[in-house]
Write a structure and sequence with these properties.
274 residues, mainly alpha, three-stranded antiparallel sheet, globular
């Protein structure tokens, strides 16, 4: 079943060209600006459609979400990979049929739990085996029918490698994964919005940061827990609830650390309302 595969040809710069071309309706531009054959480009489209960025059917056009992603890519290019990572990681939480998203999140979680690791052949093989075994148990699918390979891991690393600050960097002949100690405030807001929706918590209500919720935020943001305090501070500075923004946090009340997201901020929305 290829539904678990994360398309490895869908690199950030190519997905951006696909979305830009779909929005303008310019298929010729799509072929000119990618280094991929028409058949390879066609293989990328199903995953992009399942992420809700391209219209279903034969029409080559962006959805409303796709249009917002294109706008983000122009206004804040560095946030485009962050937004795509967030979509890839979270989509399955609200639609269990998006199994490629489930597989993507399993790989990210495993890397995060390692703290730091070399991404050599052995590590890749372990990740493939882990996802295949977990998928077989979670979805009651025979192992031999699960199509998830080293190429699928490449598909995940395409997006992790584009995050800034970086979590995947080249060291000598191999890539190495490390958690980051900071993430852009918009990425953190998207993660907090996901947490609100996943826990069915109304926006505008304080949410207590239990250890489990901190872990969930950190995994999604690929953030080391030691960086959470700085990210909380910078996110409040970016969109301070006390000054008309949407985010706040604190510890008063005797119940431990809490966060507040006053209004929805789903990916790829920005707190300024863009």
């Amino acid at each position: 079943m290829s539904e678990f595969h994360v398309e490895h040809n869908a690199r950030p710069e190519i997905v951006q060209v696909i979305l830009n071309s779909a929005q303008s309706g310019d298929k010729e531009r799509l072929l000119l600006e990618t280094d991929k054959s028409p058949s390879t480009v066609q293989r990328m489209l199903p995953m992009i459609r399942r992420l809700g960025l391209l219209c279903e059917g034969k029409a080559f056009a962006t959805t409303e979400l796709g249009k917002r992603m294109v706008t983000l890519s122009y206004r804040s290019p560095a946030l485009f990979p962050e937004a795509m990572h967030c979509l890839l990681y979270t989509m399955h939480a609200f639609d269990s049929a998006k199994r490629f998203s489930w597989a993507y999140a399993r790989v990210v979680d495993a890397l995060w739990e390692s703290g730091a690791c070399a991404l050599d052949g052995q590590a890749t093989a372990r990740l493939v085996g882990m996802v295949v075994d977990a998928a077989s148990r979670a979805f009651d699918v025979p192992i031999e029918k699960i199509a998830f390979s080293r190429d699928s891991i490449r598909g995940v690393l395409n997006w992790l490698g584009a995050l800034e600050p970086a979590v995947v960097e080249r060291e000598g002949r191999i890539d190495r994964f490390r958690r980051r100690h900071y993430c852009p405030p918009p990425m953190f807001l998207w993660a907090v919005d996901f947490l609100y929706r996943a826990h069915c918590t109304a926006h505008g209500v304080r949410m207590f940061l239990t250890p489990e919720r901190i872990d969930r935020l950190c995994k999604l943001c690929v953030l080391d827990a030691s960086g959470i305090e700085n990210v909380l501070m910078m996110t409040k500075r970016t969109s301070d609830y006390d000054r008309g923004g949407i985010f706040d946090y604190g510890t008063e009340g005797g119940f431990g650390r809490w966060i507040l997201l006053a209004r929805p901020c789903p990916v790829p929305s920005l707190p300024s309302g863009d």
